[in-house]
Write a structure and sequence with these properties.
The complex is a heterodimer of chains A (119) and B (149). With 119 residues, chain A is an alpha/beta fold. Chain A has helices at 34-42, 64-79, 91-99, 112-118; strands at 6-13, 19-29, 51-62, 83-87, 107-109. Chain A is built from four helices and five strands; from the N terminus they run ββαβαβαβα. Chain A has a five-stranded mixed β-sheet. The relative contact order of chain A is 0.20. In chain B, strand 2 (67-75) and strand 3 (78-85) form a beta hairpin. Chain B has four helices and five strands, in the order βααββααββ. Chain B has 149 residues and is an alpha+beta fold. The model of chain B has no long low-confidence stretch (mean pLDDT 90). The longest helix of chain B has 22 residues, at 38-59. Classes of the chains: A alpha/beta (119), B alpha+beta (149). The interface between A and B is medium-sized, with 28 and 30 residues.
Chain lengths: 119, 149
């Protein structure tokens, strides 16, 4: 029943010239996505990847357990001095992320191009 | 298709993560038939999914052989969804998630389901059963807002 979550990684450059590590999620983001979401983030060299962009454009299903995984990434990134931005959420999940307070710790952008223009 | 008030659909799900999407799709289909707006349907989908996950995890302890029953009832200006399990009920009111406490590790990152349910539907009520003869359930209602639909 769960659609497997896949994560792909890409290096991008922001408008300010900063290197951005983009993690693109597809499929389901739920409690069963821990290895894909948190595991992929934890495998990054924290000193070399200071700015992380989480892209949800390809996500088909997201629930509160999946949001908790995003919070775990934000927690670890905060401790490591990394900055996390988020893009590609639907208007509904933009509302949900705002309701739970994630916007206090990560800026939300409508899509990748808006994120790159601002970062 | 003609939609009449009083139509009812029941879905029985195994307590296995992922099957909440069946209830979610059913609720979305019924809300669409009733003419709810896309954004209200998204709210309902998330609320129904969270209610089913709570029923599977907390109510039925992830025992796949114990079903979660979901009854969706069309009423004149509202859609009611009852999600039933064999547990003894949830503690209410739902705790408000505190992102600062979650970020500092003082509060679990999880545990936002009940908050989301309450925030996304017009009415949410948790009723405790005995867990055997009498099921516990959560009752969700979304109402038509004629001005916005």
């Amino acid at each position: 029943m769960q659609t497997a979550n896949k994560v792909s990684q890409q290096q991008l450059a922001g408008a300010s010239g900063q290197q951005i590590t983009c993690l693109r999620f597809t499929g389901d983001v739920s409690s069963l996505s821990r290895d894909a979401i948190v595991g992929t983030y934890q495998a990054l060299d924290k000193a070399a990847h200071k700015l992380i962009l989480l892209d949800f454009k390809g996500v088909e299903y997201l629930n509160s357990s999946g949001i908790a995984l995003v919070i775990q990434v934000l927690m670890e990134a905060s401790k490591s001095g990394q900055t996390v931005a988020i893009c590609g959420l639907t208007p509904h999940f933009t509302k949900v992320f705002t309701m739970v307070g994630i916007t206090k710790y990560a800026t939300l952008y409508p899509d990748e191009s808006a994120a790159l223009a601002a970062l | 298709m003609s939609v009449t008030s009083g139509s009812k659909v029941e879905v029985r799900l195994p307590s296995r993560l992922g099957f909440e999407k069946v209830a979610m799709s059913t609720a979305a289909g019924m809300a669409k038939l009733m003419g709810f707006s896309d954004d209200r349907i998204e709210d309902l989908k998330t609320a129904v999914a969270e209610a089913c996950i709570n029923a599977m995890e907390h109510g039925n302890q992830m025992n796949a052989s114990i079903p979660v029953s979901v009854v969706l009832s069309m009423k004149p200006d509202e859609l009611e969804v009852k999600v039933m399990d064999n547990g003894t009920g949830m503690e209410t009111p739902a705790p408000l998630p505190d992102i600062d406490r979650k970020m500092s590790g003082e509060e679990e990152a999880r545990g936002m389901g009940m908050f989301l349910i309450q925030a996304l539907v017009d009415e949410a009520e948790w009723v405790s059963g005995t867990g055997t003869d009498e099921q516990s359930f959560v009752r969700l209602v979304i109402r038509m807002n004629k001005e916005n639909e």
